[in-house]
Write a structure and sequence with these properties.
Blueprint (H helix, E strand, L loop, with lengths): L15 E8 L5 H17 L8 E8 L7 H11 L2 E5 L6 H9 L4 E3 L16 E3 L7 H11 L4 E7 L2 H16 L3 E8 L9 H10 L5 E5 L2 H13 L9 E5 L17 H9 L7 E6 L7 H12 L19 H21 L7 H8 L2 E4 L5 E4 L9 E8 L7 E10 L8 E4 L29 H34 L9 E6 L5 E3 L4 H6 L20 E6 L2 E7 L9 H11 L9 E5 L6 E5 L6 H6 L7 H20 L13 E3 L5 E3 L5 H4 L6 H7 L8 H5 L9 H17 L12 H11 L10 H7 L11 H41 L2 H8 L12 E8 L2 H6 L3 H19 L5 E6 L2 E6 L8 H19 L12 E8 L2
Parallel strand pairs: 1-2, 1-3, 3-4, 4-5, 6-7, 6-8, 8-9, 9-10
Antiparallel strand pairs: 10-13, 11-12, 13-14, 14-15, 16-17, 16-18, 18-19, 19-21, 20-21, 22-23, 24-26, 24-27, 25-26
Helix pairs in contact: 1-9, 1-10, 4-5, 10-11, 16-20, 16-22, 20-21, 23-24, 26-27
């Protein structure tokens, strides 16, 4: 192809041959219709094709598939002189049968049904899109190239996949390839329903090394994952050959074969198993001028006779079927040229078909393709494998490693490797082990070797027996799940305004969505906003914190159960006890012992509590002792140390919480608002952890030391982690905090050294922290009385505001009854007079005014009216928009004066409206429409 493409003018002196183009112009036809125009122009421009004729075409919309519309359009085309059909897309069985009845050739470009390959029924049918079963030849060629002569076949229970499997089984038998067993997978396979794949792996991995999978990508990913879980892919002894029958390789979209997000994430995390996968898919176009061809298709599409609208900016992506349409026209023109030279009429479709079959041609896609005896294109397929990316060496991508070259219409294609395959073991897997799957192909080992092995096994068994009982007891402890909490045993609470707890719903999910805020200081209060994210409840008589874990389910793996036992057995006076955990969705949570005084952060924020040096020393000493215990335990480090994770019990003893359970809390699907609040934890995090792309989830001991320095700074200043400390405690900052904040983690002290460093601060303290706190509470009590008095005055002020608001909303007698707690009885009034009015032309005035101008207008007007009605015995009922309603005679009866009061008021309001000035339209005046009505109420 070259740049000489263009619209060719036909010779009016030559007779015309007309072909019909059938396509669904609601979908695919819009994108490929230009290919038929381009192909016809190319035929007319080529002196070697139909030299004595002009080729023309008629295009019709074939409508929806499997309808009678296509047959109707074919009939119209036949009546208009069409001698051959290009298309249709989608279904083609009925259409091919009609074409055979009319003895007219039909060449389709998007129909893969295997039925039409039967030439006894469809003698005039051919296609440029190979049927789905053609890929079986490429699969057999791949197997023979690597001498894989036995395999297990997995097939999706769908008609198209079954056709491929039947063709593969037939060819395998002809080529001496044994299919040991065939398994059929559900057609609607889901990743959650993976029992079948597990069973297949367990049943067959001892009998085969080669699996052929004719199914979707979900099945492929899960099958490889299960093989990897069994450790079958680590040594490179197995291979999985998969088929992608529709998706064409595109070098710009190399991850299209692992399309779904979770599959891509798994591949990147662990790419080694996929090195055992070979993927056979349709090959991408390789013609050097294919991009020019696509541009010409678009240009022809927007021209006569199609006139498809084109976006001026967005480039249309022409599908590969446009190339198949082009090939179909060129094949027909070439075959008809030869037929006409042999005096065969263009109206004899079966005779013309004889020139189409067994014909090789150069596709516009860049491949040499063969039309076989059945009229089917052999197709072109590519072998994909996971190889190292040339542009980004650390990454591995699915890239072509081999292609197939067809040698003839009935033979197998020849596999041609284009780049080395990155086999795990360095070489392709063998079809079976060297000694066979059961060792039957190797000589029997000497008897003394078996005896030696037996003796070694006995020695190992005896040594292992010494640990069996201990291991058995440990496994029993893991299996008992002593830490597991049933949700029905948990009573959820909320904090009322009086500080008492009331029972709440027994469902964490409902509680999280109820948006009820707890006044009780909580373990998980946000360090900045104070938003409570954990709740409080009772479990077996103990008050507990409830920390919601945002997971849909929990897999009780062995490592997770060990983690639970480990954290449950930690006991120290400065460690908050772990009560248990609930793993039943959606109530997945962690329970720890509740502390009435809240977290250290709550204590520091309480401005009513005075902290002297003795009190600070006690808190710091408790924190240091707790961290020493954690660092000496199997937990090794806290990883999330901050002031909100240090709670204070009723004896004013500090306890550390929210450590460990890293696997249990990992991979949470946190709501956005929770992510925002938890992200504030970086204020306590060490700089080296912030700089690390994937910091360890359990943190580091040196990172805990840095966090301790921030907490110490927070205690001294009581202004958050980045406030200013008390000048009197500056020596502690100089001697300890700065050492904890060293940029180099190796320069930071450990907690045992910190304990020695802070020993002067603890001098003079009693052994009992409660004795130390008595003096603090005496000081605190002096301020308590004034605090209570201030809060009482605030309460009275708010009560007064509430009463004033109630008096403005309701009639005074009714409001007074409600304030006294009395029941308001409905009253009947003999006669009252009602005044109601609105502004003439208010709608028109509002239309030319801004919303704020309308609000200002109504506010000025009703302020004027309200100042007037105070001079009359009336009661304002309501104002809605520009409507104003006033009544006289209720709620206080005034005899017959109500009519006079309302009438006088109306006259006064009318007088006032005459002088009322509109702020934003001072030259205009308002008109008031007034109505008065007297009657029984």
């Amino acid at each position: 192809m070259n740049a000489t493409f263009g619209k060719h003018t036909i010779d009016p002196n030559k007779p015309n041959i007309t072909i019909g183009f059938l396509s669904s112009f609601k979908e695919l036809g819009k994108l490929i219709c230009g290919a038929i125009s381009l192909a016809v122009d190319m035929v007319n421009a080529d002196s070697g094709l139909l030299p004595k004729h002009n080729l023309k075409f008629i295009a019709y919309d074939s409508g929806e598939p499997n309808t009678a519309i296509t047959i109707k359009k074919m009939t119209q085309m036949k009546e208009e002189g069409v001698v051959a059909f290009i298309g249709p897309d989608h279904s083609c069985v009925s259409e091919a049968l009609v074409a055979a009845a009319w003895n007219m050739p039909m060449i389709t470009y998007k129909c893969s049904d295997s039925k039409v390959s039967e030439k006894m029924i469809f003698p005039t049918f051919a296609r440029t899109l190979p049927p789905s079963s053609k890929v079986s030849k490429s699969l057999i060629s791949l197997l023979k190239h690597f001498t894989w002569d036995q395999l297990v076949l997995l097939v999706s229970d769908n008609p198209s996949e079954k056709q491929i499997a039947e063709a593969l089984i037939h060819l395998a038998h002809k080529n001496d390839i044994a299919i040991l067993e065939t398994f059929y997978l559900p057609g609607d396979y889901l990743t959650k329903d993976n029992t079948t794949l597990k069973e297949i792996v367990m049943q067959t991995y001892k009998r085969t090394r080669v699996y052929v999978l004719i199914a979707d990508a979900y099945s492929l990913v899960d099958f490889v994952r299960f093989m990897n879980v069994q450790g079958l892919l680590e040594g490179g002894e197995y291979v999985v050959i998969a088929l992608e029958k529709e998706e064409t390789y595109n070098p710009d979209k190399e991850y299209q074969f692992i399309r779904r997000e979770f599959e891509a994430a798994w591949l990147v995390a662990d790419p080694v198993p996929f090195r055992s996968v070979l993927l056979v898919c349709p090959g991408a176009p390789i013609h050097p001028d294919y991009s020019l061809f696509q541009d010409l298709v678009v240009n022809y599409s927007i021209s006569e006779p199609f006139n498809i609208p084109s976006h001026p900016v967005i480039k249309v992506e022409v599908p590969i079927y446009a190339g198949l349409v082009y090939d179909a026209v060129m094949i027909y023109a070439s075959a008809l040229t030869q037929a006409l030279s042999d005096n065969v009429s263009e109206h004899n479709g079966s005779a013309v078909f004889q020139y189409i079959k067994s014909r090789p041609y150069e596709s516009i896609l860049g491949f040499s393709v063969m039309i076989d005896d059945q009229g089917d294109a052999e197709g072109n397929y590519t072998v994909m494998a996971l190889v190292q990316d040339d542009d980004e060496p650390p990454f591995q991508r699915m890239k072509p490693v081999a292609r197939f070259n067809y040698q003839g219409s009935n033979g197998l294609p020849l596999l041609r490797l284009e780049r080395p395959i990155n086999w795990i073991s360095g070489a392709p897997p063998r079809s079976e082990p060297q000694c066979g799957f059961t060792g039957e192909k190797c000589d029997t080992k000497p008897e003394w070797k078996m005896i030696s092995i037996y003796i070694v096994c006995c020695v190992i068994s005896i040594v292992a027996g010494m640990f069996i009982f201990r291991h058995y007891r440990y496994e029993q402890k893991l299996a008992c799940l002593l830490w597991k909490v049933e949700m029905k045993d948990l009573i959820l609470l909320r904090s009322d305004h009086d500080g008492s707890f009331t029972k709440f719903r027994n469902n964490l999910y409902e509680m999280e969505n109820s948006k009820i805020e707890s006044d009780v200081p909580s373990l998980m209060d946000d360090p900045v906003t104070g938003r409570t994210q954990s709740k409080v409840g009772f479990y077996k008589g103990n008050a507990v914190y409830i920390y919601h874990v945002y997971k849909k389910s929990i897999d009780l793996t062995r490592s997770l159960r060990k983690e639970m036992i480990q954290i449950r057995e930690m006991r120290h006076e400065n460690i908050n006890p772990f009560i248990g955990a609930c793993v039943d969705p959606p109530n997945i949570c962690i329970l720890t012992l509740f502390s009435t005084r809240g977290s250290l952060q709550d204590v520091l924020k309480n401005s009513d509590l005075h902290l002297d040096t003795m009190f600070i020393a006690s808190l710091v000493a408790d924190l240091v002792k707790g961290m020493i215990y954690i660092h000496d335990s199997e937990i090794l480090s806290h990883g999330n140390l901050k002031s909100s994770n240090c709670i204070v019990d009723n004896r004013w003893m500090l306890k550390i919480t929210d450590f460990g359970l890293h696997e249990f809390k990992a991979n949470q699907d946190l709501p956005l608002e929770v992510q925002d609040t938890r992200s504030k934890a970086i204020m306590w995090r060490a700089p080296e952890l912030l700089k690390t792309l994937n910091p360890p989830t359990r943190g580091t001991q040196k990172g805990d030391v840095y966090s301790f320095g921030v907490i110490l700074f927070e205690i001294l200043g009581r202004q958050g982690p980045w406030g200013q400390p008390e000048p009197s405690l500056k020596y502690i900052e100089d001697r300890c905090m700065e050492e904890c904040w060293q940029e180099n983690p190796d320069d930071r002290p450990d907690f045992k050294f910190i304990k020695v460093k802070l020993r002067p601060l603890h001098m003079g303290l009693n052994a009992n922290i409660f004795d130390n706190m008595i003096s603090i509470m005496e000081k605190y009590a002096c301020n308590l009385e004034s605090v209570v008095k201030d809060r009482t005055n605030q309460l009275l002020e708010e009560k007064k505001k509430t009463e004033n608001l109630l008096l403005r909303m309701l009639p005074k007698p009714v409001a007074e009854q409600l304030l006294r707690g009395e029941k308001v009885e409905a009253e009947s009034f003999d006669t009252v007079t009602i005044y109601f009015s609105d502004i003439v032309g208010f709608t028109s005035l509002s239309a030319v005014s801004t919303p704020l101008q309308v609000v200002d207008l109504l506010n000025d007007l009703y302020t004027c009216f309200d100042s007037i009605i105070g001079n009359y015995d009336v009661y304002k009922v309501e104002t809605i928009g520009d409507a104003y309603m006033v009544v006289s005679g209720l709620p206080i009866r005034n005899g017959n004066r109500h009519a006079g009061e309302i009438a006088s008021l109306a006259l006064r309001l009318r007088q006032a409206i005459e002088t009322f000035e509109i702020r934003h339209r001072p030259n205009e005046r308002l008109s008031l429409r007034i109505g008065i009505n007297s009657g029984k109420k």
